[in-house]
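Continuing the series of single-chain predictions for the mutant panel. This is the parent chain; the variants come on the following pages.
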Amino acid sequence: MPEKTLKNKRVIVTGGARGIGRAIATRLLDEGASVAICGTRQKSIDDALAILSPRGDVFGMVADVSILDDVRAFIGAALKRFGTIDILVNNAGTATFKSVAELSPEAWHRMIAVNLTGVYYCCHEVLPIFRNAGGGDIVNISSLAGKNAFAGGAGYNASKFGLNGFSEAMMLDHRNEGVRVTAVLPGSVDTGFGGHGAGSQSPWKIAPEDIAAIVLDVLQMPRRTTVSQIEVRPSRPPQRT
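Parent structure:
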């Protein structure tokens, strides 16, 4: 059998209970990593663990990344379980697609809090662990919406434009400490994200497993190399008429 490339690596995946996050957790477990996942609903965590546990060392807990105390509790639990953290995958996200006039302040604040502030919280708590260990990897699951604005996307666009800038600056801040930072920018992925349906009704979309494969490729790069940003698009989206 081929050697598992992430054997003995300890990984946090936020939003790991479903969609892209669960696909990433699955792939990392298959490569020998120990994985901690979080989500905002206990049932989602329980359902994910039932699927993931046969594949390897995984645990999960309810944590909202927009709440600093939740982030600290989750990362603290991961540290207690694993002893250290080698990799952080910031995948948790939310979206409400409405025009600025129709977008509620609550929805605006929620998107910024989860998609941007939550990433900062997780990175801020993990970076001292990486510093003590001599390095680590951070992968931020962003979006092409962070480069291409669209009608109805003001709040989501703002959060992802911000995330891309944050990711690049963090890479520059910490690369000489052995920390690699990568932003992955998918287009349309076949999940239920943002209220859009998933499955056979959207066969042209990117599969979550494809994003997981890209994350694995990034993590397997030699330490001398940082893949700072990757754009990912469906090969054959519907043609506009």
